[in-house]
Amino acid sequence: MIKNIGFLALAVVVITIYSGLYLLKNNEDTSKDKIKKALKINLFTFVPIMAMIVVLLLPANSSAAAEAAGTAASSADGLKYIGAALSTGLATIGTGFAVGNVGSAALGAISEDQSILGRTIIFVGLAEGIAIFGVIISIMILNA
Question: I need a surface site. Which of 17, 30, 79, 88 has the fewest CB within 10 A?
């Protein structure tokens, strides 16, 4: 079963790379709308398929390694690590988006009025707090 999943993953990667190269080589449209649309479709199909492959593959490997070590492990161990990674990863993506927007607005506001520096730093700090919440949730998931 693991070999079949590996072959499926390899096929998805090869199809993704080939479709991207094909669209870049055969594009006569200068606006690049066709490439953007195809890459969006490709991304929204590639990422869930690869996540599904990881979810199917990790519990099998963790239970096989645990049986070899002489301990019993459930398939929830692999999903626990994926959940912790997703909570931290998505929180940091949200933090990057928030700090980018708030930081650029704060920089523009400070350039016009330098007396509001303290208030703008508070807003940037609140945006960075999102990442801390993601790490706390990850720690709670791993300790459960």
Answer: 30
Residue 33, exposed/middle/buried by CB under 10 A (0-12, 13-18, 19+)? exposed
Q: How far apart are CA 27 and CA 83, in angstroms?
A: 39
Helical ranges in 33-116 per DSSP H? 33-69, 76-112
Comparing CA positions, the residue from 88, 59, 61 lying closest to residue 76 is 59
- Tokens 């599904």 correspond to 52
Q: Could you give the count of Cα atoms lying within 13 Å of 61 in the half-sphere of its Cβ?
A: 13
Distance CA 41, CA 37 (A): 6
CB 80 within 8 A of CB 141: yes
Angle at which helix 2-25 crosses helix 33-69, to 10 degrees, equals: 160
